[in-house]
Amino acid sequence: MNLDKLKHEFRNSYGDGVCSVYFSPGRVNLIGEHTDYNGGFVFPCALSFGTYFLIRRTKEGFFRFRSLNQMQDEKVNLNQLTSPLNRGNWVNYPLGVIAQFVKNGCHFETGADILIAGNVPNGAGLSSSASLELATGVAINDSYGFGKDQLTLVKYGQKSEHEFAGVLCGIMDQFASGMGKKDHAIYLNCDTLEYELVPVKLKGVKIVIGNTNSPHSLDSGKYNQRVAECKAAVDAISPFKKITKLGDLSLTEFNSLSDKIKDVTVLRRARHVISEIERTNQAVKALKDGDIMAFGLLMNASHNSLRDDYEVTGFELDSMVDAARKVKGVIGSRMTGGGFGGSTVSLVQEESVDEFIEKVGAEYTLKTGLVGEFYIAEIGDGGKRIE
Questions:
Q1: CATH 3.30.230.10 domain span(s) along the chain
Q2: Is 323 annotated as a binding residue?
């Protein structure tokens, strides 16, 4: 995005004066889906596109919010910072983060003018919401001198999602947006928050994101239903082995206890989570060993499990993945993000990328009637001030 144009838009909205500019990225998860809220491992990376957050403190008793991506502007008084707006209002995402500062002892004596612009496609499953939350956290923390560390801001973003958007998400998306590093993926234990930055060295291979343009909506209830089903699996197993989350079980332990889960649907949900944690660990090892083919096979197995056991893919995602796997030079392809629409991620040999985009795009449109979009992923840094 052109920063001069963004600052021009800010002046048009709020008048002359200096503003500060912050940025936080979207993310793509290479493998490890729906494991984060189960205390498992994930392997995301921050992207080079995300959310730009322009802010100028004022002497007024309110915050003003405007987004170049949304039609609705809002003004929120300082005495209303801890109360969500109407359900579905986009301002709940930044407001929910600001509320976390208040709830943790930070005091706002004055408000600010805020302009937001993002180039993460909304509904693409690339964490536009986490990107907005972390951009807010970084900007507010720096502008008001609150002195919170980056991990605290990550947690504020997750809390915002829970309390103001009603999505019981894990911490992966916010963690990737806040803690990402250029040319590295994050091997994150979502239980302990211990993590390792793993260099992504894909010799002659590109990460290609395919946006189905079938938008997902995590607040539709399906996501929270999966959370509840995983809890039901824990409740079924815990009388026989003391666990508090599915991530406490190894695959071997799960296989020996799976007969304790009588509900077939709950059994399949648990089987996905525990096998996905195992796949994620294997995939990280494969990347470190330079075995990209093994990584690709694990990506394929991940999608199959998300399709068959977790049931979060759907016609559009499956159609794009099926088309991708037919193209020569594709090493692996899977859905990424929460599912129910959104995007795919594929490892594609560099010389096959153009053919991939052409053939997958054509077959996807033929099958679904929708037009997909494709991006070659560049791995960037986490949230920070840029000007």
A1: 3-198+381-385
A2: no
